[in-house]
Amino acid sequence: MVSLCTSSTNGYESIGEPKSQQIYDSENDQILCHIFAYKKSNCRSFFYHLFSILLAFIPYIVFRAYPRFKAQFKYKQCHIEIAEIFLVCDNHNKCTIQQVGVTSVNLPHFGLRGTVKYFFHQRTKYVWVPATNSFGTLNQLLWSQKTCDDYVENTEVLSNSEYLELFNLYGPNKIEVEVKTYWRLFVEEIFNPFYMFQAFSIALWCFDDYFIYALCVIILTLFSSITSLIQTRKQSESLHDIVESSRCHEVAVLRELYRGETCMKINPEQLVPGDLIVMPASNFIMPCDAVLLTGQAIVNESVLTGESVPVTKTSLHSGTEAYSTNTHKRHTLFSGTDILQTRYYGGESVIARVVRTGFDTTKGHLVKSILFPSPVNLQFHKDAFKFVFVLFIIAFIGMFYCLYLYLLREAPLKEILVRALDIITIVVPPALPAAMAVGTVYSQNRLKQLKIFCISPPRINVCGKIKLACFDKTGTLTHDGLSMNSVIPCNDAQFFDPVTDIAELEVQSEFVRGMATCHSLTRIEGQLNGDPLDLNMFEFTKWKIEEPGMVETNRFDMLAPTVVMPAKRPTKLKLAHDEKEFCAQDTQIGIIREFSFSSTLQCMSVICKDLVSPNMFAYTKGAPEKLFALCIPDTLPKDFQTRLSFYTARGYRVIALAHKNLPTKFKWKDAQKAKRDKIECNLHFLGLLILQNPLKDETVPVITQLHQANIRTVMITGDNIMTAISVARDCGMVDAYADIYILEVTESEDEAPELLVKKAGSGAQPDIAVIEIYNQHCHIAMDGKTWGKLRTYYEHLIPNLLVRGTIFARFQPDQKTQLVVALQELDYVVSMVGDGANDCGALKAAHVGVSLSPAEASVAAPFTSGIPNISCLIWLILEGRCALVTSFAIFKYMALYSLIQFTTILILYTCHSILGDFQFLFIDLIITTTLAVTMGRQGPSKILGAKRPMSSLVSPKNLVPLILQIVACAFFQLAALYYLYQQKWFEPIPDQGQDEIVVSWENTVLFTVSCYQYVILAWQFSKGKPFRKSVLTNFWFILNVVSLTAFVTWMMLSPCKKIAEIMELMPYKDLEQRSFRYLLVLFPVAHFLASGFIEMFMSDRVWLKKLFQCVSCKTRPKNKYKRLLRDNEFVNYFNSLQISR
Question: Which residues form the P5B-type ATPase N-terminal domain (predicted)?
Answer without folding.
Answer: 34-107
